[in-house]
Amino acid sequence: MATTFVANPFVVILGAGDTWAPPAKCRVLSVIGVMIGAGGASDTTQITDGANAITNAVDVSAKSDTDMFLYGQVNDAYYDLVPGTDTLTHVVVSAAAVIAVVVLAWVA
């Protein structure tokens, strides 16, 4: 099944616990994590659609301030966001000090 991308990719930047409601259908293409403090014991970060995991949970407990990393998986079962149904959500555990830079594209 071919997907028609209707606009250039764009980014949404989410801090810990932040959410974003898409105004039109879009697809998560990749996610980059940027540490804004050192990781602590049991710190993890993950991107969801409000209910389902879009990315894997990333352990950031050993990461240092200013480290950058890619979330290793994007789940194609949940990477499309539908307005009124899905909310892009940055879930953190143990107050992980990380910003998620989510790269998306509008889709038809």
Describe this structure in words.
- By secondary structure, the protein is mainly beta.
- It contains no helices and nine strands.
- Strands 1, 3, 6, 7 and 9 form a five-stranded antiparallel beta sheet that branches.
Span of the ends, CA to CA: 12 Å
What portion of residues is helical? Answer: under 10%
The biggest beta sheet reads: 5 strands, antiparallel
The ordered string of helix (H) and strand (E) elements is: EEEEEEEEE
Shape designation: elongated
* Residues in β-strands, percent: 35-45%
- Uncertain runs: none
What is the β-strand count?
A: 9
Q: How many distinct helices?
A: 0
Mean pLDDT: 94
Radius of gyration: 14 Å
User: Structural class, judged by helices and strands?
Assistant: mainly beta
